[in-house]
Design goal:
Blueprint: E1 12-16, E2 19-26, E3 29-36, H1 48-62, H2 78-88, E4 94-97, H3 98-105, H4 110-118, E5 131-132, H5 149-160, E6 164-165
Helix pairs in contact: 2-3, 3-4
C-alpha cells in the first residue's frame, strides 16, 4: 500500500468540504489539528483518540452547533491562552475583530491577538476563524494570501456557521467579502 507523502505525521485525516483536516495525537492528548488541501486523502484513525477527534470533526462539519470535548496538549504562552479562551467564548455565527478581542482581554495590541490566533494548534476546537481584521477578512492560520487555500477555509467555516456581525461591531470588515 502506497502511503501519501505527508500523511504519515497524522494519526487520522478527515475529509472536509474545503479539503481535509489532519489529526495528530500523542500520549492520549490531541497534539494538533491541521487544515489540509484537497489532495490529501482520508486516513483511518490510528488510535482511539484520533478516532474520537475524527468523529467530533465530522459532527461539527454536519452541525456547526456541535461542541468539541477533546483532551488538548498543553501548548502556548500565558498570553496565547488568554486569547484562545476569549476566542473560545465567541458564539457560533458571530464575528469579532482582533481589536475587539484585544480590548476584551485588556490588551492594546490587536496585532498580538492576530499572532496568537495564527499560533492556534487546535482550529475548530478553538474557533479562530471567528476573528477578523477591522478592515477585512484578515489572515488565517498564519496565511494571508487573499485567494489562498487557508482564507478559503475561513470563508467556508464562517458561511457554515452563518456568520454575522456582533451588535455594535464595525461593519467595515465586510468591505472585503468573505464569500468567494
Amino acid at each position: 500500500m502506497k502511503i501519501q507523502q505527508g500523511s504519515e505525521i497524522f494519526s487520522a485525516i478527515v475529509a472536509a468540504p474545503f479539503g481535509a483536516l489532519g489529526i495528530r495525537t500523542d500520549a492520549g492528548l490531541l497534539r494538533e489539528l491541521v487544515y489540509l488541501p484537497p489532495h490529501f486523502h482520508e486516513k483511518d484513525a490510528g488510535d482511539a483518540l484520533a478516532d474520537l477527534a475524527a468523529r467530533q470533526i465530522e459532527r461539527y462539519l454536519a452541525d456547526p452547533d456541535f461542541k468539541f470535548a477533546l483532551p488538548l496538549c498543553e501548548v502556548g504562552s500565558a498570553f496565547q491562552h488568554k486569547v484562545w479562551n476569549a476566542i473560545a467564548s465567541i458564539p457560533r455565527g458571530t464575528v469579532r475583530t482582533y481589536g475587539q478581542v484585544a480590548k476584551h482581554i485588556g490588551c492594546g495590541a490587536p496585532r498580538a491577538v492576530g499572532q496568537a490566533c495564527g499560533a492556534n494548534w487546535f482550529p475548530l476546537v478553538i474557533p479562530c476563524h471567528r476573528v477578523t481584521a477591522a478592515g477585512g477578512l484578515g489572515g488565517f492560520s498564519n496565511h494571508d494570501d487573499a485567494t489562498g487555500f487557508h482564507l478559503g477555509v475561513k470563508r467556508w467555516l464562517l458561511a457554515h456557521e452563518g456568520a454575522s456581525l456582533e451588535k455594535g461591531a464595525d461593519p467595515s470588515w465586510r468591505q472585503q467579502t468573505i464569500w468567494p
